[in-house]
Amino acid sequence: MKIEKSNSFRRIIKVLILSAFGAFACVSMVCGQSDANEATYKIAVLQYRGGGDWYSNPTSLPNLVEFCNSELGMNIAREVPYVEVSSSDLSLFPFIHMTGHGNVVFSTSEARNLRRYLIAGGFLHISDNYGMDSYVRKEFVKVFPDLEWVEIPFDHSVYHQTFSFDHGLPKIHEHDDLPPRGFGLFHEGRLVCFYDTECDLGDGWEDYQVHRDPESIRVSALQMGANLIQFAMGGEVE
Q1: In tens digits, what is the pLDDT along the chain, a chain of 238 residues?
Q2: How far is C-alpha 192 from the chain's CA centre?
């Protein structure tokens, strides 16, 4: 399966994505204003049905936003809302995070809405908090019945934005004593969904008091998270 396009094609795709989300941003923010406190981007957490704890890790995304803003000079809104799979508001967010430990259920209309969002230029990051893998794989057949999960090669640009991860995902928490793995869904050559398993990347973004991970682990997790957001925002990919 070919997962890389030519440089010129990627530049065109990046322009189209940024243009699309610039238009989406105008829905909720007045375009042309120069307020230094006005966020350029907003990100969100996906709220889904099925009983899984989609609300896990409440401090994760705010901490990741703070890291991206301070270390990369990004201007992401500090407030990180929850957005339902069925909501038209998906289009307001170029990056959406999904996590949990258990069941996930998408209705036909929800799957269609999520597919529409991803095809239009959106990006979804799924972090298996442990226990959601079988549900994710089953439900995403509804979203992209014609696509299969592909393990992301370590030389893919998602691992080499501002921060380089030559050996792929950092290992944050132990689950089944297996190495961390990053999988993706590619639509017409574009990575639209990144899925980490045996990693617990989102846990590494939480407040120190939650898991008391070593600072080096937390920094690695935040750096990889920043790469994902930068990739989703159309940052330099190679």
Answers
A1: 444 444 444 444 444 444 444 444 433 333 333 333 588 999 999 999 998 889 988 999 999 999 999 999 999 999 999 999 999 999 999 999 999 998 999 999 999 999 999 999 999 999 998 889 999 999 999 999 999 999 999 999 999 999 999 999 999 977 788 999 999 999 999 999 999 999 989 999 998 887 788 999 999 999 999 999 999 998 543 3
A2: 9
Are 197 and 134 in contact by the 8 Å Cβ rule? The answer is no
User: Can you give 84-110 as a three-state secondary structure string?
Assistant: ECCCHHHHHCCEEEEEECCCCECCHHH
**Is the Cβ–Cβ distance between 64 and 116 less than 8 Å?**
no
Taking the C-alpha atoms of residue 103 and residue 183, their distance in angstroms, rounded to an integer, is 19
Strands 181-187 and 190-197: antiparallel
**H/E stretch holding 126:** strand 123-128
- 7-27+34-232: which CATH topology? Rossmann fold (3.40.50)
How many angstroms separate the CA atoms of 55 and 61, rounded? Answer: 11
Token pair recorded at residue 149:
């999960």
Q: Would you give the DSSP letter of residue 211?
A: H
Report which of 120, 115, 179, 189 is spatially closest to residue 156, judged by C-alpha positions: 189
Instruction: For residue 55, report the phi and psi dihedrals to the nearest 5 degrees.
Output: -90, 10
List CB contacts of 87: < 8 A, sequence separation 6 or more.
113
DSSP strand pairing (150-151 vs 181-187): antiparallel
> Dmax of the chain from CA atoms?
51
Domains of the chain, residue spans: 7-27+34-232
